[in-house]
Amino acid sequence: MSKKKNYWVNRIIRTIITAFGVTLIAFLILHLTKGDPVRIMLGPYASEENIAALRAKYKLDEPLYIQYLTWVGNVLKGDLGTSIRYNRSVNELIAERIGPTLILTGGGLVIALGFGVLLGISAALRRNSFMDYFSTFQAMFWLSIPTFWLGILLLYIFGLQLRWLPIAGMTGFASVILPILTIGLQQEAWFARPMRAEMLEVLSQDYIKTAKAKGLKYSVVVWKHAFRNALIPIITMLALRLPWIIGGSVVVEVVFSWGGMGSLLVNSVLSRDFPVVQAILLIIAAAVVIANLLADIIYSVVDPRIRTAG
User: Fold this and answer.
1) Which residue, among 193, 198, 192, 204, has the nearest Cα to 229 in the 3D structure?
2) What is the mean pLDDT of residues 302-310?
3) 298 CB contacts (<8 Å, ≥6 apart)?
């Protein structure tokens, strides 16, 4: 088998093993915590007969391994179960909430990558200048503020004091600006510093000096030769930061009363709604696994040497 095929086979096998581990963790994470979802839903005065009947309805009276195998089998069929709290299909609940969450995470990611990469490149091209110092300062500033506090701060300034933007809910384009900025600004710092460091290293390489000596335009040298080779650590950072971006969106949705999967997850955790929590955790983890696989694919496109060495 060629090195190229070996590379892809190894990555796919790792992805399958990771996905299997994810299903196990997603299933067990709530079952190992205290609290009976049936008793929470029926209240403290429910009879044992009603509790037993409802537990049997959702198959919570079966052994844990049977519940797990049943759940995995249903997931493979595309059935994520029925919500204990809402008594509705989990597929329907997630279908209603996934759109707003994708808007937040997608918008935040665009801001993080856009500002981070541009500031990193600008800082590298103007080393020890005002732009370089500004890039370092703003990165440290955003990193020092917790996500929930940054959201509250932006809400207070632009929503309550200046009254420029809505402070909660989904009421149109204006209502998405503050949540997206909250996610994007904090994550942007994680891309700006690695981009600066990698660009400085690439610009000092001999092939860049040779390209300059041949009389190529400086913009061509920077964007065609240096930028492409400086992208690999950014791809790595993107794969590493994706769980934090998704996790940050959960906090942001609560702060801004945004009706996405994050707020659904928080409410479901509090009510021990096992099927909903398991499904959302599975979707989040699957997104991270797929993102890492895509990162491997992009690595091999940007630098074919990685594919042959894998």
Assistant:
1) 198
2) 54
3) 235
Among candidates 66, 64, 93, 62, which has minimal Cα distance to 80? 93
> Which of 156-165, 191-200, 207-216 shows the lowest per-residue confidence on average (mean pLDDT)?
207-216
Rg (Cα) of the chain, in Å, rounded? 24
- Helix 90-125 with 130-143: angle, nearest 10 deg: 150
For the segment 77-129, what is each residue's pLDDT rounded down to a tens digit?
888 888 888 888 999 999 999 888 889 888 998 999 989 989 988 888 888 88
pLDDT for the residue numbered 305:
55
Q: What angle do CA 243, 245, 251 make, to 5 degrees?
A: 105
Query: In the chain, how many domains are there?
Result: 2
Is 84:38 a contact under the CB 8 Å cutoff?
yes
Per DSSP, 121 falls in state H
| Position 41 in a domain | yes
Q: Do 107 and 244 belong together in one domain?
A: yes
State which residues form the domain around 284: 1-85+271-310
In a shared domain, residues 105 and 250: yes
Same domain, 108 and 210: yes
Question: Are residues 283 and 215 part of one domain?
Answer: no
Over residues 198-226, the mean pLDDT reads 79
If you average pLDDT over every residue of the chain, what do you get? 82
- Inside any domain, residue 91: no
Cα–Cα–Cα angle for 233, 235, 237, rounded to 5 degrees:
70
The pLDDT value given to residue 300:
65
